Input
Amino acid sequence: MSGINLECQESASLARKIRVQTARMIHRAKSSHLGSAYSMADLLAVLYGRILRIDPKQPGAAERDRFVLSKGHACAALYVVLAERGFFPKEWLEDFYQDGARLAGHATHVGVPGVEVSTGSLGHGLPIACGMALAGKRDGCGYRVFAMLSDGECDEGSTWEAALFAGHHRLDNLIAIVDYNKIQSLGTVKEVLDLEPFVEKWRAFGWGVREINGHDLAQIEEVLASVPAESNKPTCVVAHTVKGKGVSFMENKLLWHYRAPDLEEMSSALAELGAEE
Amino acid sequence: MRGAFFRALLELAEQDERVCLVVGDLGFGVVEEFARRFPKRFLNAGVAEQNMTGIAAGMALSGKIVFTYSIANFPILRCLEQVRNDVCYHNANVKIVAVGGGLAYGSLGATHHATEDLAILRSLPRMVVVAPGDPIETEAATRAVTAHVGPCYLRLGRAGEARVHRGEIDFQLGKAIQVRDGKDLTLVTTGGMLETSVKVADALHRAGLQTRLLSMHTVKPVDADAILAASHETGAVFTLEEHSVVGGLGGAVAELLAEAGEGVVAFKRFGLPSAFSSVVGTQEYLRVQHGLSVESLEAAIRSTLEKNRTFTATTRA
Output
């Protein structure tokens, strides 16, 4: 473990908590999208642990950074990191997705401090983030807007409408992070609707692009801490990730877009993740 | 109506720096003054209504009062899910303005006929649906939707409609304006059919039928008190709109009367059939084709009343 600094250890610890809690939540709820939560877990850990200028005591502060989870189906991980940061009690995680719960199966802002925007239908997050970024720039506010996109939602025309807009308007306070795990609902991205050449597309739309390993905590932090990547441009971080990252039998498996782990699978997953208990 | 809207909007923008205008690359000759006077609050989002609506929601969630502006169905149907999720669900302070409500763009064909908009927007939670009847109502409606916190849909006609109201009006969202009083029947109208409705009411009056005329500029929430009072006091209610008879003003009034258990009230919805127009023509031409001329409406109202009278007499006998 030499060479891993203290900050990365903190992020690793937060990422592990995200994965462990998310597995428990999705197991209890018999819900879906564990693989999608795991592919972005390291990105979320760095964002919420190291990057976002937010105050859980003032979730509506005017100058806060905004985080928009456009891939709302992976919200279990977001709820965990918000609870870990103290936006709401951790007990709320326990009945996630269940009858009468506070936390719904797609990102929901109603009554949930820290969730900026409700999402779930894909292709909505980046346009909203553009509106927030434009308002911030025109008002001379210093906040940044981070939007986490799935690769699958880059099929949506509205995502590219927003990409064109952000480039044109030079929204350098906007950062799109694409969780490029390369598996979407019914197959690989390559099979369903190939996005390549992906980085070139964003560049052509006027974005500064950084391509990273979305599981390399030091690299994630280095890139997100130095935005905009290019002056006067919005930043797109194309994060190469692995669906189901962190649990060997889930990695790169389409099945784990949907499957909820049974008790045995969850125990194996928690053991691999080094969960306490 | 378009001119009245922009006059009011410019004044409102002068008074309140939160007021922004986001257009979908439409409004040639009418948006320029706003853009010139308030450059930081004007945005042409391009021909991209989904993004335009998402941006408007994002701006509204950052404290702005955002008007989106386009024509016919473009700012509502092309981006309906953004309207529902991004605007309504977040209770974002967005006012959607569509010019060309109904058959205003008649000759351009069915793609430009906004004839289901009231029904569709009326079904969205939190959405306030307003279709002013003349330039006076338009100006008042623009002020009212700005003052209202939350999503609104403002359906306008085109430019150059006649002023129907003389002098001041008492315009409140959700409250009908009584244009004429009468005891024999009530005609409830919304949007650009107001001028026709006045002529129909006058023609009926000349024929001995005293007509109450309600301008129902707010289709949602509809003014239930005014409609129920009309059914009690006049016994006959007719709705008139340049919109499909499915789900718009006529639908709203029918739902209300049916559930109120009003018994035998003569009732008929005048509007457009649920169909795409198969003829080409101007707004005026298409109105005549669809039975929405003053003469056709007067005749249809009289014949409905006659049938109802016969029916009532038969059932009582």
